[in-house]
Amino acid sequence: MTDSRETADTTETTRTDSSSPADQFTVTPYAVDGEIDYEKLLERFGANRLTDEQIERFPDHPLLRRRTFYAGRDVDKYLEAAAAGDPHAIVTGRGPSGPMHLGHVLPLYLAKRFQWKTGATVYIPLSDDEKFLAKDQSFDAIGEHTRENLHDILAVGFDPDRTRIVIDTADADVVYPIAVRLAKHLTPATVEAVYGEQDTVGLQFYPAVQATHLLLPQLVAGRQPTLVPIAIDQDPHVRICRDVAAKEALPVEKPGALLGRFLPSLDGPGKMSSSGDAPSIELTADPETVAETIRTHAYTGGRATIEEHRKKGGDPTVDVPFQYLRYFFESDDAELERIAADYRSGDLLSGELKELAIERITEFLDEHQRRRAELGSLEAELDPFRLTDGEQRRALERAGVPTGLDR
Ligand code: TRP
């Protein structure tokens, strides 16, 4: 498949289009607002809906089967390489601005499945620089979140031979020179059109850093299809990267994207946010906290009274506990269908559906937390995942940036 927008990835603006009331939502990496129309977003961003055939060709996963990841860019190139056993890479990162919650691990577990099934190389950059600039937090606080987040990332269980974890400030030797090269083509006008106005020149520069992340697997190991599975608010970074990589004529393919919907926030639709009012479920939450949070805060599709619910049934499509099961936590399609049918018929009450979600989420967190607790010292665990000297050198050479004086 060829991308019909070869060089025009960044021409679309991501800001609120006020032409009709239904279009009044904003999705950029730094602002998500309003009732998101996921189909309209594809038009705005110029990405493509995944076809049934593409979903078939990906390793089987409920996040794809049920179209939580529902769109992409240049997906076929990735699928072809994966099928042929040729090198192919995934990049999915984390902005360490706070504890990680359930929504944050979806792309990570998806990436792990891809790695397991087809041997994808996985790069996981942590943008501590971005979060320092975007949030009102000290570097100490961001550093603490970085360490905590790294425990969660390591607990997912990636293969150290095929996975690299990159931390912007700690790996600045390799990230910075490449970002500078890419920044040459990033004008303030483009940044403003794609991200909206930025408060500081730091944030204006940051897209060059994230573009670097997306090219790193190819700069380290040579040209190969790269797929970036992310929630759709991060797509602007992919578009910027595609444009600037082409302009600098680097020996890389434009990275592709696999775009996901947001895990709904517990108290209703929208993005699950750790900074908004709605509580979110952190990966370190104990079973009592999970149960308490869902029982108290989860928005349901149930009726006002039990009698009415028994008679008319509930609506799983707006029920957040059901949506959590559908997104990730109930992988068995037949079981999920049974739950939906029982809810619609009124046999299953909202409280009972909440308990099912609590059970599944607790099971998942139990496993995750067990692996997290088994980790040794962070430095020792991280070591096999860091770029080697040789890998750094090759990346700088391919990017054509001077390695300068050895330290
Ligand atoms: N900017 C992302 C966030 O705020 C984190 C991130 C950094 C990332 N580099 C990335 C995500 C590369 C995907 C791919 O969450």
TrEMBL record:
One of its GO terms (cellular component) is cytoplasm. GO terms for biological process: tryptophanyl-tRNA aminoacylation. Keywords: Aminoacyl-tRNA synthetase, ATP-binding, Cytoplasm, Ligase, Nucleotide-binding, Protein biosynthesis. InterPro entries: aa-tRNA-synth_I_CS (IPR001412), aa-tRNA-synth_Ic (IPR002305), Rossmann-like_a/b/a_fold (IPR014729), Trp-tRNA-ligase (IPR002306). Gene3D superfamilies: HUPs, Tyrosyl-Transfer RNA Synthetase. Residues 1-15 have a biased composition (Basic and acidic residues). It comes from the Archaea. Belongs to the class-I aminoacyl-tRNA synthetase family. This is Tryptophan--tRNA ligase. It comes from Natrinema versiforme JCM 10478. The lineage of its organism: Archaea, Methanobacteriati, Methanobacteriota, Stenosarchaea group, Halobacteria.
